C-alpha cells in the first residue's frame, strides 16, 4: 500500500531527526557544557586572536628561526612518508588479493594495517619521546608509524585496481612473479600510489604541528614555546607561515594528483 | 599436436567443470562452442593450466602439461599464447609495452625485472604491431584505444611469444561487427602460417564462417568433434540441449 | 612457430619514445621525494643519540604496553568516564559541525552560490583548515578557560571547515538538470534543496560525517593530551609523560584501539549498505 510506505518513511525521518537531536543534547549534558559561555567564547576568541596574534616588529625577528623550523618539519614529514611508502609497497603487494600469494600473510598484513591505522598516535609520540628524547628522529619515527597503516591499506586497494585478469594474462605468457609485478603491476599502479603518498604528505604536514608539540620537535615545539612564554605575536607569525605552507602544499598536491592520474 | 585425454575437473562447489574429456586439436582454427556454463572456458584454461584439472592428461607435443612442475609449466606457457574477452592488458602502459610483455616468459629473472629488452625484441614488437595494423599507435596508452584495437594489441602480445598455439577466450564477445571480422580474419591468417588457433565462441554463425574444426561442449562433455562441414542441425541440437544429453549419455 | 613475418605494409622502426605528461610528473616526483628524503635523513639532528639503548628501551616499553597492560593511578571508573567524555566530545563536535557545514556548503557549492560568494567561502574554509585543530583549542582554552567548552569550540571549527568542503563537493556532483526539474514544477529554493538535493546527497554526506567522526575521535584524544582539556587523552599524557607508567598507557591504547576498530567495522558495513 502506497500510504503505508509514505507513513513509514515519514516516521523514520522523524525518528532520525529526534535521535540526532537527542545525541546533541545528551552530549552537552554529559560534558556539562556552559552553552552561553561557549557561544560567546567563539567571538571573544576570534577577537582575541586578531588582537594578540598579529605579528609585530619583534616577531619578524623570529622569522628566520620559524622558517628554518618549518623547513625542517616539512622535510622530515616528507622523508617519514616516503620511507613509510617504500615499506607499504611491500606490505601492499603481500596484502592485495591479486598479488599476495600467501593466504595467511594477506590476512596478517590487513590486520597489521588496521591496528596501525587505529593506534592512537598520541601514544606513539609519548612512548617515542621517552626512549628517543627530544630530537628530529622522534618526530620522524612518530610520523612514520602513523603513516604506515594508512598507506598499506590505501596501497592494497590501489594495487587491486590492476585487475586479476591482466595479471593472469601475464602468467599465461610464462612470466615469473617478480617480472610481472615490476613490469606490469607497479607501472600500472604508480600514479595511484603516488597520489596517496601526496595525500599523506599533505596530511602529515598538517599533523606535524601536533606531533611536534607532543614530541618537542619542529614547528610544533616552536609554537608551543612562543605560546607558553606569552610571545603571542611570534606565535601568530608561526600560524601565518603554517597557513601559507599548508595551502600551498594542498594546491600543489591537488595539481600533481590531477597530472598523475590524467 | 595438442592432445587431451580423460580430463576431469570439479569445482569446489561440486559443480562439474569437465567430465572425461578426450579431444585432439589439429592445426588450423578450432572453435569450441556450447551453451553458457558448459565448460568452454574450463576446457580452454586447462590447456595452459590457468585451471588445474584433477585427473587426465594434456599434452603439447611430448610434453605433459597437467603435471608439469612450476619451471616446466612456465616454459610450456611461453609456447602457448592467449587472448581474452576483456583483453587483460595493462591499460596504463603503452601498446608497445604490452606487446613486449609477451617475451617476459622467455627471459632470465633479472632481465625480466629490469625490463631489459634486446634491440631485436624491440624491433620485432614494432613489427608485430604493424602487422596487426597498429603501427601508429605504438606509444599510445592502451586505456585510450578502442576495443578492437586493444584486442589486436592482445594478439600482438601473444605473437611476441612466437607461440605454437594461441588460445582465445571469447575474443570477440565485447567487439562490434567490424572489429569482429578484423580479429577473426587475423586469427585465420595466423592459422595459415602454422599457428594452431583454439577459440571459444558464443556465436555459431561466426564459428561456421571462420573455423576449420568445431568442438561442441555441453555439461562438461564433448558432444561434437569434427570438421565444420559436419555441423548439422542434429549436432547443434545436441550441443545446445538443456538437460537431455547429460541423462542420455 | 612462425616461419617468417608477413610482408609489411611499412617498416616501423623502434623509436625513442616521448614521455607523457604523467610519466614525466611521476619521474620528477620520485626524484624529488628521494632527494628530499635523503637530505632529511642525512641532516637529521640526533644529538648523539645512543641508538642501541634507545631502541632497546623503546622495545621494552612497547612490550610493557602490549603484553602487560595494567591499571595505574586511575581507577577503571575514572578511565571509563574519561573515555566516555572523549566519545561525547567527538560526537557532539561532529554533529554540530555537520549541521553547520550543510548550510555553509549550500553557500559554497557551485549550483547554488553566486561565484564571488563561493570563492570567498572556499578560501575562508581553506584558511581555517590550514590552522591545526590544536591551535584552535589552545586559543580557546586561553580565552574561555581550560575545559570542555574550549575543546568543543576548537574541534568544531575544524570540523565545519572540513565538512563544508566535503559537502560542497558532494553537492556539486548532482546534475543541475535534476534540480531544474523540481524548479520547473514551481518549487522555491528550500523546497528544491529538501526534495531534490537532499535525497541525492544524503548517503554521501552521511559517509563524510562518519569519516569526520573518526577524525574527531582521534583529535579529541590528541587535544586532551596536548592542551590538557580533559578526556582520555589527558590520562594518556599523564600516564606516559609524568608517571612513566607504560602499562597504563598500554591499557588505554587497547581501549582506544578497540573503539576505533569497532568504528572501522561499522564504517565498512555502512559503506556497503549505502553503495549496494
Automatic annotation (TrEMBL), chain A:
Q: Which Gene3D superfamilies match?
A: MetI-like (1.10.3720.10)
Which residue intervals define the domain ABC transmembrane type-1 in the entry?
A: 70-253
Q: Where in the cell is it found?
A: Cell membrane
Q: What is its main location?
A: membrane
Give the source's domain of life in one word: Bacteria
Per UniProt, what is one Pfam family of this protein? BPD_transp_1
Q: Which residues cross the membrane?
A: 12-31, 37-54, 74-97, 109-130, 137-156, 176-201, 208-227, 233-253
Q: What is the membrane topology noted in the UniProt record heading this document? A: Multi-pass membrane protein
Q: Which SUPFAM superfamilies did the record assign?
A: MetI-like
Q: Which keywords does the record carry?
A: Cell membrane, Membrane, Transmembrane, Transmembrane helix, Transport
- By its UniProt entry, which PANTHER family does this protein fall under? ABC TRANSPORT SYSTEM PERMEASE PROTEIN P69, PHOSPHONATES TRANSPORT SYSTEM PERMEASE PROTEIN
The entry sums up its family as follows: Belongs to the binding-protein-dependent transport system permease family.
Q: What is this protein called?
A: Phosphate/phosphonate ABC transporter permease
- What species was this sequence derived from? Lacticaseibacillus baoqingensis
UniProtKB/TrEMBL annotation, chain B:
Native source species: Lacticaseibacillus baoqingensis
InterPro entries per UniProt: AAA+_ATPase, ABC_transporter-like_ATP-bd, ABC_transporter-like_CS, ABC_transpr_PhnC, MetN_ABC_transporter-like, P-loop_NTPase
SUPFAM superfamilies from the xrefs? Answer: P-loop containing nucleoside triphosphate hydrolases
Q: Which NCBIfam families match?
A: ABC_phnC
Q: Which PROSITE patterns match?
A: ABC_TRANSPORTER_1, ABC_TRANSPORTER_2
**Which Pfam family, any one of them, does this sequence belong to?**
ABC_tran
Gene3D superfamilies, per the entry: P-loop containing nucleotide triphosphate hydrolases
GO MF, one term, reads:
ATP binding
Span of domain ABC transporter: 2-244
Q: Which UniProt keywords apply?
A: ATP-binding, Cell membrane, Membrane, Nucleotide-binding, Phosphonate transport, Translocase, Transport
**Name of this protein:** Phosphonate ABC transporter ATP-binding protein
From TrEMBL, chain C:
Using the record, list the residue span of the signal peptide; answer none if the entry has no such feature: none
Question: Which segments constitute the ABC transmembrane type-1 domain?
Answer: 83-267
SUPFAM superfamilies to which the protein is assigned, alphabetical: MetI-like
> Where does this chain mainly localize?
membrane
Q: What stretches pass through the bilayer?
A: 25-42, 82-107, 119-144, 217-237, 249-268
Region of interest called Disordered, as start-end residue ranges on this chain: 1-20
Q: Which domain of life is it from?
A: Bacteria
- Write out the entry's keywords from A to Z: Cell membrane, Membrane, Transmembrane, Transmembrane helix, Transport
Q: What membrane topology does the annotation report for this chain?
A: Multi-pass membrane protein
Q: Where in the cell is it found?
A: Cell membrane
Cited PANTHER family: ABC TRANSPORT SYSTEM PERMEASE PROTEIN P69, PHOSPHONATES TRANSPORT SYSTEM PERMEASE PROTEIN
Protein family per UniProt: Belongs to the binding-protein-dependent transport system permease family.
Question: What protein am I looking at?
Answer: PhnE/PtxC family ABC transporter permease
Amino acid at each position: 500500500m502506497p500510504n503505508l510506505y509514505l507513513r513509514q518513511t515519514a516516521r523514520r525521518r522523524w525518528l532520525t531527526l529526534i535521535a540526532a537531536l537527542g545525541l546533541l543534547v545528551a552530549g552537552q549534558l554529559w560534558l556539562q557544557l556552559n552553552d552561553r559561555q561557549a557561544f560567546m567564547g567563539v567571538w571573544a576568541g576570534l577577537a582575541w586572536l586578531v588582537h594578540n596574534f598579529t605579528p609585530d616588529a619583534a616577531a619578524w625577528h623570529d622569522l628566520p628561526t620559524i622558517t628554518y623550523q618549518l623547513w625542517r618539519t616539512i622535510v622530515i614529514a616528507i622523508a617519514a612518508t616516503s620511507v613509510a611508502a617504500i615499506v607499504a609497497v611491500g606490505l601492499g603487494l603481500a596484502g592485495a588479493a591479486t598479488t599476495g600469494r600467501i593466504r595467511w600473510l594477506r590476512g596478517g598484513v590487513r590486520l597489521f594495517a588496521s591496528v596501525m591505522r587505529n593506534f592512537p598516535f598520541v601514544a606513539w609520540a609519548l612512548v617515542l619521546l621517552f626512549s628517543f628524547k627530544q630530537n628530529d628522529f622522534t618526530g620522524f619515527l612518530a610520523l612514520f608509524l602513523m603513516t604506515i597503516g594508512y598507506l598499506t591499506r590505501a596501497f592494497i586497494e590501489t594495487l587491486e585496481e590492476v585487475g586479476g585478469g591482466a595479471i593472469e594474462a601475464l602468467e599465461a605468457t610464462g612470466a615469473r612473479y617478480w617480472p610481472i609485478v615490476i613490469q606490469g603491476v607497479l607501472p600500472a599502479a604508480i600514479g595511484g600510489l603516488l597520489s596517496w603518498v601526496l595525500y599523506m604528505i599533505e596530511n602529515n604536514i598538517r599533523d606535524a604541528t601536533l606531533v611536534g608539540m607532543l614530541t618537542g620537535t619542529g614547528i610544533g615545539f616552536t609554537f608551543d614555546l612562543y605560546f607558553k612564554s606569552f610571545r603571542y605575536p611570534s606565535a601568530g607569525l608561526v600560524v601565518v607561515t603554517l597557513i601559507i605552507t599548508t595551502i600551498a602544499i594542498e594546491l600543489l598536491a591537488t595539481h600533481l594528483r590531477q597530472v598523475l592520474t590524467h | 599436436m595438442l592432445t587431451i585425454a580423460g580430463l576431469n575437473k570439479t569445482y569446489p562447489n561440486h559443480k562439474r567443470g569437465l567430465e572425461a574429456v578426450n579431444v585432439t586439436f589439429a592445426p588450423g582454427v578450432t572453435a569450441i562452442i556450447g551453451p553458457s556454463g558448459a565448460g568452454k572456458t574450463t576446457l580452454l584454461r586447462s590447456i595452459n593450466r590457468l585451471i588445474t584439472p584433477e585427473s587426465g592428461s594434456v599434452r603439447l607435443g611430448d610434453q605433459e602439461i597437467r603435471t608439469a612442475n612450476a619451471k616446466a609449466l612456465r616454459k610450456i606457457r611461453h609456447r602457448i599464447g592467449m587472448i581474452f574477452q576483456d583483453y587483460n592488458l595493462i591499460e596504463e602502459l603503452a601498446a608497445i609495452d604490452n606487446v613486449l610483455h609477451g617475451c617476459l616468459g622467455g627471459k632470465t629473472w633479472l632481465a625480466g625485472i629490469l625490463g631489459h629488452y634486446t634491440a631485436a625484441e624491440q624491433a620485432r614488437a614494432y613489427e608485430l604491431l604493424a602487422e596487426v595494423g597498429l603501427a601508429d599507435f605504438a606509444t599510445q596508452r592502451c586505456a585510450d584505444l578502442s576495443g578492437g584495437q586493444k584486442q589486436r594489441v592482445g594478439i600482438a602480445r601473444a605473437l611476441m611469444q612466437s607461440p605454437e598455439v594461441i588460445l582465445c577466450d571469447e575474443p570477440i564477445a565485447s567487439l562490434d561487427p567490424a572489429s569482429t571480422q578484423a580479429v577473426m580474419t587475423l586469427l585465420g591468417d595466423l592459422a595459415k602460417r602454422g599457428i594452431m588457433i583454439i577459440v571459444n565462441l558464443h556465436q555459431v554463425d561466426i564459428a561456421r564462417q571462420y573455423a576449420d574444426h568445431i568442438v561442441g561442449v555441453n555439461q562438461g562433455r564433448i558432444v561434437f568433434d569434427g570438421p565444420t562441414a559436419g555441423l548439422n542441425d542434429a549436432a547443434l541440437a545436441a550441443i545446445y540441449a538443456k538437460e537431455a544429453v547429460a541423462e542420455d549419455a | 612457430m612462425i616461419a617468417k613475418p608477413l610482408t609489411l605494409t611499412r617498416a616501423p622502426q623502434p623509436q625513442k619514445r616521448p614521455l607523457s605528461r604523467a610519466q614525466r610528473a611521476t619521474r620528477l616526483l620520485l626524484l624529488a621525494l628521494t632527494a628530499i628524503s635523503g637530505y632529511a635523513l642525512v641532516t637529521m639532528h640526533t644529538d648523539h643519540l645512543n641508538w642501541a639503548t634507545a631502541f632497546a628501551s623503546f622495545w621494552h616499553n612497547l612490550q610493557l604496553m602490549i603484553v602487560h597492560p595494567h591499571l595505574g593511578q586511575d581507577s577503571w571508573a575514572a578511565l571509563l568516564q574519561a573515555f566516555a567524555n572523549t566519545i561525547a566530545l567527538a560526537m557532539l563536535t561532529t554533529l554540530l559541525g555537520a549541521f553547520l557545514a550543510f548550510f555553509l556548503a549550500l553557500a559554497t557549492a557551485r549550483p547554488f552560490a553566486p561565484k564571488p560568494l563561493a570563492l570567498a567561502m572556499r578560501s575562508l574554509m581553506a584558511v581555517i583548515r590550514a590552522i591545526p585543530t590544536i591551535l584552535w583549542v589552545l586559543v580557546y582554552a586561553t580565552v574561555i578557560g581550560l575545559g570542555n567548552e574550549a575543546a568543543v569550540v576548537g574541534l568544531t571549527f575544524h570540523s565545519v571547515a572540513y565538512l563544508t568542503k566535503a559537502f560542497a563537493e558532494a553537492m556539486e556532483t548532482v546534475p543541475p538538470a535534476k534540480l531544474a526539474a523540481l524548479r520547473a514544477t514551481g518549487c522555491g529554493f528550500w523546497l528544491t534543496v529538501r526534495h531534490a538535493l537532499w535525497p541525492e546527497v544524503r548517503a554521501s554526506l552521511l559517509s563524510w560525517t562518519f569519516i569526520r567522526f573518526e577524525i574527531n575521535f582521534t583529535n579529541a584524544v590528541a587535544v586532551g593530551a596536548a592542551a590538557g582539556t580533559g578526556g582520555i587523552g589527558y590520562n594518556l599524557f599523564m600516564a606516559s609523560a609524568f608517571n612513566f607508567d607504560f602499562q597504563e598507557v598500554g591499557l588505554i591504547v587497547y581501549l582506544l584501539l578497540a573503539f576505533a576498530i569497532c568504528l572501522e567495522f561499522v564504517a565498512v558495513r555502512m559503506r556497503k549498505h549505502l553503495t549496494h
